[in-house]
Amino acid sequence: MQKKWSLKQTDAAIVGDLQQELKIHAVFCTLLEQRGIKTFDDAKNFFRTSDTHLHDPFLMKGMEKAVTRIYDAIANNERILFYGDYDVDGTTAVAVAYSFFKAIHPAIEYYIPHRFTEGYGVSQKGIDYAVSNQFSLMITLDCGIKSTVLIKQAKDQGIDTIVCDHHMPDTILPEAFAILNPKQADCSYPYKELCGCGVAYKLIAGYAARYQINVENVNMHLDLVATAIAADIVPITGENRTLCVLGLEKANHNPSISLKALRDINALVKEFTISDLVFIIAPRVNAAGRMDDARKAVDMFIAEDMEKAKELAAILHEDNNDRRDVDRTTTAEALELLDNHQTDHSTKSTVVYQPHWHKGVVGIVASRLIEHYYRPTVVLTMSEGKVTGSARSIKGFNLFDGLNQCAEYLDNWGGHYFAAGLTMKEENLPYFISKFDEVVTKMVPEEMFQPIIDIDAELNFQDINDSFLSILKQFAPHGPENMKPIFLSRGVKDFNNKSAIVKDKHLSLVVYQTPGIALKCIGFNMAEKFDVVRSKPTFDILYHIEENEWNGKKSIQLKLIDVR
């Protein structure tokens, strides 16, 4: 569909001051200003990341109580249960904390709820397991902040709980022994956007600092922390950026056994980038919980020998292949439902339901449908006798707030701005569909139903060279609030009619603005733009600037985002 192009606005005075102080191309100063970097010192901290930028763990409310309680539990030989979630953030959080404390105290286990039989967060089955196995301390990781009833039940049965979470707390907090969550209203921790694994990392950092444990034990799984940050779509700013930089450094120079195993199974020979963590590592870890049991992801992360890690990595790889097949089939079925007008196309939302769809892929399918029909989307299936599924949103619609307005028809729901999960009785489905569309129509202005590409800066080809690219690389790692820059170049031309369609769906071309400056471009899944390139004397392009390596030679390549 046609996308709207929107060039970001910047403060020219700040850009000018940065350029005067930094003596770099004005485009880089524009990128810095857009990312909230307004002074020389801000820029220095951004480009020269180090562990000195990490905050003191004891600035986080509850940290002193938490580490003291764990110390006492170890001293008294209590049984400790680490309770995590089944996604990348939850499984890495468990692996990071479990590995650290297992080296100190053997009476430790971990628990990951089953996605289909227990659902997200602390479950009744999990509490029953803790009680029957005589655990006296439970530490929740990437969950627990909303589990007030079950944590109270655990307390009543003699189990203290330390909640380590990053999700937005409700007004009423669980009756936990201690809560570590920088989003607590009265928590003075200076960085609020840690992921669940990030909070787990601060817990072990706090424990090590208080009880004089070697910092190498804290940092042995920094690459897993970076993987969690990348996969959980939290802002790559502040402390998250620092942890990502340090984690990528570890991944590329001294990786955990698990990441080595996943690297080998995927035949990855180049250095890890944040994109590799998002698109290669994370899907395989998530596939464990989507298709079967996420415990094997944790088992891989905590494996102490390569053979065991490789065996589990191979299983995760196969799970991901199965997930892809199911994802592809389900997406095709959902698109057929929509194309056959079994859904009302006058609506402002998309809700599709088939009882046989696999619960593990409905969130992925919802994202795929948004690529075709740019509307808030809910994909539902039947599980445990109820209609359940996932929702994904578009810019301009807060999905969590929208679902709150449909609460009368929902048994359970949770999530955030762009993604959520929900469950309801089957008889409530038609009422939910109607109400959800009413809410979307009311909350989303008409112009927001056209996808928008936010452009960072306009650029001339004469500015793109090796030295430009070397500075541009230093803006990585990329993610929310520090996305990979999108550049605009106007009036480019097809060089000697070299444009071509590759493998029936990709666009390959060489373009130039002025004689002598020609750049190779690749547009994945953009074959439909071939006519624009061939039929127009000039056209405008949006792109990322990348370094392409082929047969040992490196060159600059533009990765196309759009053409018009």
Overall pLDDT: 93
- The count of helical stretches stands at 20
Percentage of residues in DSSP E strands? 15-25%
| Largest sheet: number of strands, sense, barrel closure | 5 strands, parallel
Terminal residue distance: 12 Å
Strand order of the largest sheet: 3-2-4-5-6
Task: Catalogue the unreliable spans.
Answer: none
Task: Please estimate the helix content.
Answer: 40-55%
Count of domain modules = 4
Report on this model:
The protein is 41% helix and 19% strand. It has 564 residues and is an alpha/beta fold. The protein folds into four domains: 9-47; 57-254 and 273-295, inorganic pyrophosphatase (n-terminal core), CATH 3.90.1640; 343-449, Diaminopimelate Epimerase, Chain A, domain 1 (Roll); 453-564, OB fold (Dihydrolipoamide Acetyltransferase, E2P) (Beta Barrel). Strands 3-2-4-5-6 form a five-stranded parallel beta sheet, with helices on both faces. The protein has a five-stranded mixed beta sheet with strand order 7-8-9-11-10, sandwiched between helices. Strands 14-16-17-19-18 form a five-stranded mixed barrel. The longest helix has 34 residues, at 306-339. The protein is globular, with a radius of gyration of 25 Å.
Produce a short descriptive summary.
With 564 residues, the chain is an alpha/beta fold.
Name the descriptors.
19% strand, globular, 564 residues, 20 helices, five-stranded mixed beta sheet, Diaminopimelate Epimerase, Chain A, domain 1, five-stranded parallel beta sheet, 4 domains, alpha/beta, inorganic pyrophosphatase (n-terminal core)
